[in-house]
Design a protein that fits this description.
This protein is mainly β. It is about 10% helix and about 40% strand. It contains 4 helices and 19 strands. Strands 1, 2, 3, 4, 5, 6, 7, 8, 11, 12, 14 and 17 form a 12-stranded mixed sheet that branches. A 5-stranded mixed sheet has the order 9-19-18-15-16, with no helix packed on it. It has a two-stranded antiparallel ribbon with strand order 10-13. A hairpin with a 2-residue loop joins strand 1 (about 1-10) and strand 2. The longest helix has 11 residues, at about 215-225. Keywords: Isomerase, Metal-binding.
Amino acid sequence: MRISRIAHPEGMSFVVVEGGEADGAGATCREIKGHPFGEPEYTGRTWPLADVRLLSPILPSKVVAVGRNYADHVKEVFSKSAEHLPPTIFIKPPTAVVGPGAPIRIPEWATRVEFEGELAIVIGRPCKDVKREDWKSVVRGFTIVNDVSSRDLQFSDGQWARAKGLDSFCPLGPWIETDLDFAELDNLPIKAHLTHDGVTETKQDSNSNQMIKAVPEIVEWISSAFTLLPGDVICTGSPAGTAEMVPGDSIDVEIPGIGHLVNPVERY
């Protein structure tokens, strides 16, 4: 089941996206009554996906992210090995979240801004101290995240809050895939395509089997530190291949079984 949040002529709604192609072409949105965390109860209202606008599928109270979770990415960004720089945890504020198609807006004083296409976990119920073998009991599903990062700020500040937490620096979507067995999570392709001056190039082309901490371990690790609430998002880390993006570019993060998260880049 694909759960999303849409803007339609009468307002905003949570919906289940049904039918159509993998990218949503030809799909229909069925409105959900209330919240999206239990078995959906439908209102009877529907819209063609082509007639509405996809928003971020959820508005989290917090986005908890794992940094340095792919050894090759650690080497390309930090010029050190993962043995010396193991995975770490940081938080992106909810004000950084935007939906599919919304612009990533780069302020003039942020330079070397890079995309980081990642698999994201969406929490389905309040939880704390979850054992790794119980991770499925607290997860609502998976989506795609672009952990936008200003490298100049990341290294000049000495910590990551500003570099990764600016408004629009957390595109999320296009929907939440609730089938927790939709793919082999330890063998899931992750790609990011950069379009610059009309030319599209695949920059990230990796696989979740390169994670240092896998999904069950990530849920255990993060929930040992923070109480997680329904709708909270966990970013599982970026593979290698991140690159600078500039105003006028577009980023397409692709994960089979979930879809594409596409956002343009603008200056403000």
